[in-house]
Design brief:
It is built from six helices and seven strands, in the order βαβααβββαβαβα. It is an alpha/beta fold and 134 residues long. Strand 1, helix 1 and strand 2 form a beta-alpha-beta unit. The mean pLDDT is 91.
């Protein structure tokens, strides 16, 4: 475990990533929505170039590959689960995104001190990954 490393899984607008960076942590910020991931790269360009932040535009899944992701009109509800992305009558468009397992991400970037997870229906995959790594 790296006591200076935090994962922000489901980074959305980067508010949590920004907080962790201000606290002095290195952050791996994971966001499946390519538009939001691009915004994160722009917002944290200085931190990325300094090696304090890594932005991964991938979805978290139980196996590597590609999957359909539903980008909701209300972006905070975007999900791999269509019902979650379209709740309350919001429309969602389908896109294909690269997926990786939490284990493969940790193998490359390290085991974090803290793991923040907010990924609309796939949160359990991060919990299961932790139980399997013991």
């Amino acid at each position: 475990m790296d006591k200076h490393l935090i994962y922000d899984v489901g980074a959305y607008d980067g508010a949590d990533t920004a907080y962790y960076l201000r606290q002095g942590y290195r952050v791996v910020s994971i966001e499946a929505d390519p538009t939001l991931a691009d915004e994160l790269r722009t917002r944290f360009a200085t931190e990325v170039s300094a090696g304090h932040c890594t932005i991964l535009n991938v979805g978290v899944a139980d196996e590597a590959g590609e999957a359909t992701f539903y980008v909701s009109e209300l972006p905070i509800w975007s999900s791999f689960d269509k019902a979650m992305a379209t709740r309350a009558g919001f429309a969602a468009r389908e896109i294909r995104v690269e997926c990786r397992t939490v284990q493969s991400i940790m193998q490359k970037h390290g085991v974090p001190f803290f793991l923040k997870v907010d990924i609309e229906g796939h949160d359990h995959l991060c919990v299961l990954a932790q139980s399997r790594s013991r």
